[in-house]
Specification:
A hairpin with a 3-residue loop joins β1 and β2 (54-62). The protein is an alpha+beta fold and 67 residues long. The protein starts with 24 loop residues before the first helix and ends in a 5-residue tail after the last strand. The protein has one helix spanning 25-34, and strands at 41-50, 54-62.
Amino acid sequence: MQAGKTPIYSKFEPLSIKSHPALDERWVQQLTADDLDLGDLVLKDKDRIQLLAGRLDLVLQGLESGF
């Protein structure tokens, strides 16, 4: 939040993506990736396969460190 700006309050309602016909894990992942506000972190990859360990939904990288 920028100095001098009044924060906006939003009340959230629970939403089940299991029972929703149009929303799924990919929708949540894309929404999260598009709305990241994590300072100097950037989205590096999505659904990265890890050998013998499944997959990582989102991979983030620090701009300064490169990790």
